[in-house]
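quick one before i forget lol
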Amino acid sequence: MTTREWIIWDASTAAARTDIVAAVEAFESIGTPAGNDAARWLRVDALANDGSTRTWLLLAEGRVEGYVALCAGQVDLAATDVAALGLPPGRPRLPAILLAWIARHRQSSVSGKELIDIAYGIAQRVSRQIGAVAFALDPGDDAVAEIWRAEPYGFRTASRGKRLWLPISPEA
């Protein structure tokens, strides 16, 4: 059985763990434009963005199997969505936890669903501290948006723009 662990990727981890630095530098995502962008962001920009975006790495046997990066954001919701969340009317722009980046290694067996589930769980915990009501992401294009809207993900379309969202339900 492979041991897997989630690690926060920040300057202190980079300074203390040269093995993780090497794993990040070797990360290869799926060979699509979005995958290439995600791999480049992890290797080049993730540490520089720490503080405004928090990155979690899934490590197994010395390799980054996948990662998620989250930050604070907002989502514009229709009045019916606001009401369904049990919130007072007249406030369509609401706080959200934004999935800024997500990617898996091109040879990993980890699924996108598993990565989303981890990111959503983090969003649930964080939302209790900062008051976010939605988990959101910005799909790269219409084809990617369709994937996120379909099962097993079920993201909804925001009232403005292309942002997609899910309600953050309280932790069980």
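fyi The CA atoms of residues 4 and 60 lie 5 Å apart.
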